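so i finally got all the pieces together for this one. its three components total, 1179 residues if u count the protein bits. some of the lines might not be protein, just check the labels. i wanna see the whole assembly predicted at once instead of chain by chain like last time, that was a mess tbh
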Amino acid sequence: MENHSLIQRLIARPEFGPFVLLVVEIAVFWGFNHDFLSPQNISNTLAFTVELGLIALAMTLLMTSGEFDLSVGSLFGFSPVLMWTLFNAGVTSLEVGFVVALLVAALIGLVNGWFVTQLKIPSFLVTLGMLLVVRGSALFITDGFPQRTWSAEGSWLAEALVGDFFIGPFRIYMSLFWFIAAAIALGYVLTQSRTGNWIQAGGGNPNAARARGVNVNRVKIGLFVLSSVMASLAGVISSLRTSAANPNSGTGYELEVIAMVVIGGTALTGGRGTIIGTVLGILILRVMRNGIVLIGVPGLAYNIFIGAIILGMMALHSWLERRHQAGT
Amino acid sequence: MTKTDTAPPLAGSANHQPRRRIRLPAETGAVVALAVLVAVLGWLSPSFLEPANLLSVLSQAALPGLLAIGMVFVLATREIDVSAGAVFHLAATFTALLMVAGMDPWLAALAGVTAGAGLGLINGLLVIALRLPALLVTLGTWWMIQGLSLVAGKGQTFAPTGAGSGFFTTLSGKAFTVVPAAGIVFVVLTMAMHVVLHRTRFGYRVQAVGSNPLAATYAGIPTGKVKVLTLVLMGAVAGLAGVIHLGSQGAIAPGDGGTFALLAIAAAIIGGTSLSGGSGSVIGAAIGMLVLQAIQSAMTLHGVDAIWTAFTTGALVVLALAIDRLIRLWRDWRAGHGDPLG
Amino acid sequence: MSDSPILFVRTIAKRFGGTVVLEDMNLTVERGSIHALVGESGAGKSTLTKVLAGIVRPDSGVIEFDGKTVTIDSPNAARKLGIGMVLQQPVLFAERSVLANLFVNREPVHNGLISRREMEARSRDLLRQLGLDVDVHTPLRDLGPGERQLVAIARALLENPRLLILDDPNSALDGRQSERLFAALRGLKAKGMSMLYASNRLDEALGIADQMTVMRNGRDVLSKARQDLTTSEEAMIGQLRQSLFPLPLRALPTLAGTLRPQIAVEGLSGGILSGVSFTARAGEILGLAGSGAPDLLALLFGLRKPRQGKVRFSDGDGLPGTQTEAARRNICMISGDRGNGLMADKSIAFNMANVVVGARNWGSLWYSPKAALRRATRQIEALRIRSTPEMPAGALSAGGQQKVVIAKWLEIGPQVMLLDEPARGIDIGSKQEIYALIRQMAASGCIVLLHSRELSELTGLCDRILAFHQGRLAGEIAGDDMDVGKVLKLIISGKPADERHQSSRESAA
């Protein structure tokens, strides 16, 4: 085997493509409008980005195991609504309401996982149905109206999750650190632990994995729970940061998150995943969203871009796969 | 049972006569479900059985029902098209725009249906070119088509003027003063597509491709072409539904058709079409949609909020999927399936 | 050291749907011995090994391991008992590295993190012993099939099983790799490991085994120590197949006035083939043996693109570009893997219409179930398929299924019939009937090419055999010359058997 130079090995990594894409994108947008890289713009973009990002991290692991979860968007809206409803009704404190919301999300993840692993229904369809169930529940609890939220200053929960402070001209929220911590933790799990190997094996060749004694079902159920809990957490963080709780919020997030994961290089069919790639994918999409608005393209056109990028990345992966296989 | 010495009996094969099982048509389950459902709902609230109400169920089931019919063909080839709802919406928006621009409403309607077919064609070509399952391709095109719709309609409800023209009165009218026009189209198309699936070469190919794509290829069936055609059909039918929606409602709102794709899949599955492909039932899908709409209508009658619609749709879909899978598992268990040779 | 057998299998039975695969199977493996399990394909060897590996559960019977009655209901249970398994088609992870594949779910873990260094250390010696000289970090898909099989074997060995079961482990290995494998196995035996070696290659089994059990139609028909086998018993085992084959038609029919349809191949290169030239004619069954034969079939059926060469079919055109095109030109491929030709959940009538209705581009746009039923009834009678037309094709036995696959092509009469181990996994009676069918096809003007790894099948059925060695056409054997040994020699060494001068330093594989 020849010794590849460091540069060559870097280029061969699946994350290289997205990295280049991100750099080009930032350059282009900055070229159009120098405000793009202003501290204020960056801070604003970053705040919401990490919330979606938390979901994308969990989704990376789930997709590596070969499954999708489309209910995350509805959980993003449902959980804070549940938390605030309980709080406003005086049933519990905010903190306990938070825990309840997370537990309910975990339960929903369990149900998702059970349907997929025991009844062998495609995860896409199960979670699509669950999306509607959860959304409907959110609407039901609130009668369709946004919940009252008090400014959560002073609550230690809010401080821990979304306390903000300034570093120079940048406004940073605590959620950024949570995101970084989650990224590091999940990245390690995926690449350096046995559990990560289980996930990759289960996604790459579930029969072979089972033959080796991997409990593929248990792993997948766990990942569904992780995905739901992360979505729930992200929703609560967002709600505390913006002091709002709208039952309809989160609509459409699931596809955007999947797009982030796919663009980052995780295989759609499972078996291979990269957290670094997902982080890049998160940035690429959010920068795109922010950038096109700044340029003046109608925000509604964002969907078209996302769809085109998803298709483009899928085509690219598919082409690379075939080149690889033709080479053997 | 097996003899290894002299030749005649075939060693190794089960030596009993295959039992003559009467195989019920796949639609039986759906028909029974519908009958039972109507009976129960009628008992719970007699006003449900009033002709006006039953006809309204039919008219509400008609448009997603059209999508369900198209979806049967797609599901039969082991694919799923989730962009159907967006195609519905874009076709309607496109038609409305043409009308506003001055085109004759009927021509605009034709253009709308064609546009739907065209979108289906794009889906199909992408599936072939990217060599990806339609589920994933239509995931991407769903986004794009939806985005186009939003941009074109500026996110608002769009009502083209010219309400007095023949187009709108026909489509919002009723034949024999009772049956809604949409309902008639639904019934006629159901029967036509049933014939197509079971009596034409195209229908045969669809079933063959879904049953075993590799065997179909080896036999010379153009698998790719068949899949593309089913997606074109799906698009055309979705476009047709969109155009009818525009005609009968007079407007196209941003939320319209959002859950149609999912409803169509659920209805098809309730009606006996399986996710694993190879077979399908158009009549079953139509009945399945009637079942779904009947449930929703009954809930409205009981004063349950419209807010529940999302919840129940989702719950019903998951339920339908679960039951389909359970039946399949039960059948496999009874047949004692397994792979004889490694 | 106790003398009791390590494995004791009694009256195991298993059926899948309509097919009885195992029936009253008995087996005893002595401790520290290599026990060969031989039988032709379809005898049930793979199923028995899967039962022992916990992948398949038997309908009845007793298994005793190390003196205790056990139930092996999962691969994990087998592993805990100390049973290691190398399957015929190893299940591996193509995108992951060799190292990852060797240690799936058994990775050494320190502080929650996988220790790559330890994995490398543990595997180094073993891989060297097996002769697998690759960088353990390469993804598995970059390896050839032989190397992949070695990885599967290494993986099983890394767990130090007490009983190692190998199902046809050297099917993808070349001569040199096979030798190293056998050497490694002998070494393991010396260390006390017991082995069960399933194969349909009698000579290899005779070479390595201490004990032998012959399987036929799901049961054991002979169990003896190797050295106790009499020559007549050996001959019987080899001869089990003789009565299977229909008599070749000595007088090939001459089509008056016209040239017989043929395929002319000139200088064809593709896959591992290089510079292959021959002519295949209608009326004869042409056998293909050796490495390269599957590639040839793939090229002729449009599954592979050629690098070079000219091919001319009897319809005037060259190689088909895709399988669909091939089928449309009446070139059919029938393989031992019935998943390629059978729609299991559809009725027999539906299946029979595959080509006649499904693939025709002209003619009626309609499909008539009644006509399909009539067609199927006719074929069922003609081919003696034990079923009714409405039954799902998947409920048939393996032999019946293959007959349906052939029948759908009989409807239009193919121009070329490519057969790839068509009788694999089929019981004896149906095999006979299928062989007779193939002979009939050839006689009625079809060009028939048959590839099989069971050389006796080739010598029994074919009129001519082309032997390939490392992708080149090593020789042709016909008529009275046809003999398994001669074919084998050509495939392995590229030289015919009666070459006097030995080239002692043959270029290694």
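Chain B has a mean pLDDT of 80.
Chain B touches chain C through 46 residues (CB under 8 Å).
anyway lmk what u think
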